[in-house]
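RECORD TYPE: protein structure
NAME: Propionyl-CoA carboxylase subunit alpha
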Amino acid sequence: MGIKTVAIHSDVDTNAVHVKMADEAVCVGPAPTSKSYLNMDAIMEVIRKTRAQAVHPGYGFLSENKEFARRLASEGVTFIGPDTHAIQAMGDKIESKLLAKNAKVNTIPGFDGVVKDADEAVRIAREIGYPVMIKASAGGGGKGMRIAWDDEETREGFRFSSQEAASSFGDDRLLIEKFIDNPRHIEIQVLADKHGNALWLNERECSIQRRNQKVVEEAPSTFLDPETRRAMGEQAVALAKAVKYSSAGTVEFLVDSSKNFYFLEMNTRLQVEHPVTECITGLDLVQEMIRVAKGYPLRHKQADIPINGWAVECRVYAEDPYKSFGLPSIGKLSQYQEPLHVPSVRVDSGIQQGSDISIYYDPMISKLITYGSNRAEALKRMEEALDNYVIRGVAHNISLLREVIVHPRFVQGDISTKFLPEVYPDGFKGHKLTDLERRQLLATAASLYVAEQLRSQRFLGTPRIPIAKSKRSSWELSVHLGDGIYPVAVSKHGSSFSVEVDGMKLNVTSEWNLASPLLSVTIDGTQRTIQRISRNASGETSIQFLGTVVSVSAAEAPSPLHQFLKHFSNPCGVWGVSVLVMWQLALIGSKTIFSIMRLLGSPSSCRGNKLLFCF
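PREDICTED:
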């Protein structure tokens, strides 16, 4: 848009991507958020110093802080978002629910006032009927929320929620409402200007969550029919107009299995998942926010808002998905490569190779978005994008994301906010290989081993002494995967390998560029992108296959003669050496070998023959 930008940053974010992209950058304090990104005095000083005319608050920190918006207005600086009245009204869950009721928006049955103490909480819960949701009035991000199924859980939930609300938001007020069991979380994007115009830009399906935080989002939803979509959109616009809203905002709803929908809350900012809406409507929401803040009227009418195709977003986190569906991981991104070569892929990120994932901020690495003409196409591209995403140095949740998008329930659209705990009741364990996938992995690992062996025999330049080229074209291997050891036969035909596993032959082809972190392999016509993560001194290799990292090792299988001689060996050191020497002398002839064995005598006499084999 030709607007010069100023980036603010903490001292640990000096080399951050947004700092490099901006025209100017100013440090606002040390790493802790209270001393930098939430430090209003420091930020206001930067605004004065740089003579900034407007501030876009993003979707965290001060983006829904009415005091910050008020201070900007007092300095004559434009806040790219709604005015302070709308932020305050929608930021308070109790006030926003009352406003929603007055605007004829469907609301969840519950108590509209502030709950005073645990005894009152129990009385209200009994009146509403269990289960109930106890939540912080000023809350967000899943904090200060508890579900109670009986009186005891209500008392306990009241205590914990008020404590968490006070520590997280400085406000311990709580409300209680009916808990909608097994709902979907569907939200409506709204866009309004300062001239009384407001639009609904269709919905986003956000039901895949862990700890009340979204993991996978898509637009549109598989669940809504046109009538329900229109009703939700019209109620969202009615609420926006009721508070004289101007800017982009999101009205969140819970939707039950009968397509009854209930107002949850309104986010008075840009949402993390806004790209999926941009993909299906063609609107740039950030640009529209800037235009609205400048005072321009909306350029579109409701009839102009389309649903073109399908978009899916995965939140890529530096988290270990095997621990409670994601515990944060910190460290330096030693290798980082976004899958931008995959068609119709968008990556919104603020990091690059060498960036640090610190303890101070949210561990999100990026938002990975794919677009297709239909849902199946968008999901297939997401699968490909996740396989081609290279992240090294920190744990990440790509294995979980990939499992979610290929799960039959998700593919069929059979989802709710309980999807993860229902599908993985014992926690996430990674991808479980089918027999076909196991054979594909074994064939790939065996081919990779042979390709490495062949590469090690190639030399650049002219050697000082002639080196005989290997004419070998077949290998008998043992491949160790999990608790099993599998015999695998490999034969080379040009750049392809014919691999026999479990009595079945598979054809494996690849360019075998072993220097690349990504390896595209075709197995009997099926293309797979694998990543070789690491290889230790013992030959054990970590391979990312179908999103999950597995350990596999391959080695040449011992010859039948070696197996036979090994049968006669024992832990006595010299006899073991004797056997190995005899194996090497096998070419001399069987008579010679038998003579040596007679000379050595039985294994029990090995100590007397020690000198004979001290070469």
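COMMENT: Residues 94 and 112 are 6 Å apart (CA to CA).
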